[in-house]
Design brief:
2 helices; 60s Ribosomal Protein L30, Chain: A; alpha+beta; about 35% strand; 6-stranded mixed β-sheet; homotrimer
């Protein structure tokens, strides 16, 4: 009844249960230290890939939580975010400031989607 | 299968899927700069309105996440929160400190509810 | 349709709806001021207890959010977390820094699980 993808010892990148898809908080693994806009784009590309692997896509995102290590980058992140959101299918969203696991990561995005 | 209300380019205020309702993180849009208690009341009024629009109400809230820009306002927020929670129907809850998108907002609340 | 356990005026520790279980953010209530590893273990023991009371267990955790009051304790927390995660059943996870409700608590964990 529960399907997990990219399963590690610490977390799974995707967990599917009863039509709902939970993604692990995504950071810009290959873009650490890059500007916020670039990290955001890399994260959204990763999210697109994980959603595809789960059998869904960005038109079915229900909810997003965005953590910025510095909230003054809000507008820079949003420019990339707004371009990614599919017209008419924007998810519920919260965006707050929190330091992340490693200082080279300045954006983290968690997603709940429908299958 | 997914119903979205108050849909914007950045986020939807309400997303409904399979009996579960996700609200965008609510801030006190019309009370920026007001004391924490007043912002909290305004947010909870907004949440009541969004839940009504979704076809549900505060007795069916499953989970709440509360972000305070200054955790020392915990008691001030709770006084308003506790009065709002319907007896016997309190949601699961987490409350932590995070700076929010704009400095005039000192409280943000995210809600998951049942339809 | 909604079942709540350990219901208080402020929050319920467990809320169950349609096969999904939401736990309140757990802190180390009896270990305030203890080292992060000890707080983490106490929290995970509490989570095991709440999941059992809900009729489920840690092999069915879908998603976890971990807040650390000091992100430099990331490795210390993870050592305990990694040992707790059941092989092949790791949840989606996000871990960020946020101050918590009281300074003696340095770790808080929120859980969504399947019944």
């Amino acid at each position: 009844m529960i399907k997990r993808l990219q399963v590690g010892d610490r977390m799974s990148q995707v967990v599917i249960h009863d039509g709902t898809v939970y993604l692990a908080g995504q950071v810009a693994l290959e873009k650490g230290g890059a500007p916020v806009a670039e990290q955001t784009q890399h994260i959204l590309d990763r999210i697109d890939g994980l959603l595809k692997e789960a059998g869904t896509d960005k038109t079915k995102v229900l909810s997003a939580t965005i953590w910025l290590s510095d909230i003054s980058t809000f507008d820079e992140m949003n420019k990339v975010w707004d371009a990614w959101v599919p017209e008419g299918n924007a998810p519920a969203r919260a965006c707050v400031e929190s330091k992340l696991a490693a200082p080279q990561f300045t954006v983290e995005i968690g997603i709940i989607a429908a299958l």
